[in-house]
C-alpha cells in the first residue's frame, strides 16, 4: 500500500549530502518500525536503515553505516534519512516504509514482507 510520500531526492556529486523526507503523519506516528530501502533496476529492494520507535534504536546495513542517519522529528510526523559522503554506488530509488507489530531484531532485519506501508520512491543519483 503506497500511502507514504517521500521527497528530497536528486542529483549530487560524490562526497555530497542529501536528506530524504517521508511523511504521512498518522502512519509515521503510530508505526512500530520505520525503515528506508533502496533499489536499482534489475535488483531486489534492500533495507538500509531501520528505526524501532519503541526506544528510538536504529540499525544500518554495512553499506551505509557511518554515513547515513535515520531519524524521526519531534512531533513524529516525518521520517528522515540524512545521507552524507555519498558515493556513486548509492545511486538508487529510495523508499520509506512503515510497519506495526515489528520491533527489535525483527525491525532491524527490515523484512520487506513485514512492511504494510510504502512510499512511491524518490530517485537519488550520485555522480563521480
Distance between the termini: 35 Å
What's the Cα radius of gyration?
Answer: 13 Å
Count every beta strand, where a strand is a DSSP E run of 2 or more residues: 11
Please write the string of helix (H) and strand (E) elements.
Answer: EEEHEEEEEEHEE
Specify the overall morphology: globular
Helix fraction, binned, reads: under 10%
**Beta-strand content:** over 45%
| Number of DSSP helical runs | 2
User: What's the pLDDT, averaged over the residues?
Assistant: 95
Structural class, judged by helices and strands?
mainly beta
| Assembly state of the chains shown | single chain
Describe, in plain words, how this protein is organized in 3D:
The termini are far apart. Strand 7 (68-72) and strand 8 form a beta hairpin. By secondary structure, this protein is mainly beta. Strands 1, 2, 3, 4, 5, 6, 7, 8, 9, 10 and 11 form an 11-stranded mixed beta sheet that branches. The mean pLDDT is 95. The longest helix is centred in the first third of the chain and has 6 residues, at 25-30. Helices cover 9% and strands 48% of the residues. The protein contains 2 helices and 11 strands; from the N terminus they run βββαββββββαββ. The chain has helices spanning 25-30, 104-108, and strands at 2-7, 10-13, 18-23, 33-39, 46-52, 57-60, 68-72, 78-83, 92-99, 117-119, 122-127.
Amino acid at each position: 500500500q503506497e500511502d507514504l510520500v517521500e521527497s528530497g531526492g536528486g542529483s549530487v556529486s560524490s562526497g555530497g549530502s542529501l536528506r530524504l523526507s517521508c511523511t504521512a503523519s498518522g502512519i509515521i506516528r503510530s508505526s512500530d518500525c520505520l525503515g528506508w530501502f533502496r533499489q536499482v533496476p534489475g535488483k531486489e529492494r534492500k533495507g538500509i536503515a531501520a528505526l524501532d520507535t519503541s526506544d528510538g534504536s536504529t540499525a544500518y546495513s554495512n553499506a551505509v553505516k557511518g554515513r547515513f542517519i535515520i531519524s524521526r522529528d519531534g512531533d513524529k510526523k516525518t521520517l528522515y534519512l540524512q545521507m552524507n559522503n555519498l558515493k556513486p554506488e548509492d545511486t538508487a530509488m529510495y523508499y520509506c516504509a512503515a510497519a506495526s507489530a515489528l520491533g527489535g531484531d525483527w525491525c532491524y532485519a527490515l523484512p520487506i514482507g513485514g512492511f504494510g506501508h510504502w512510499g512511491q520512491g524518490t530517485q537519488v543519483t550520485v555522480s563521480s
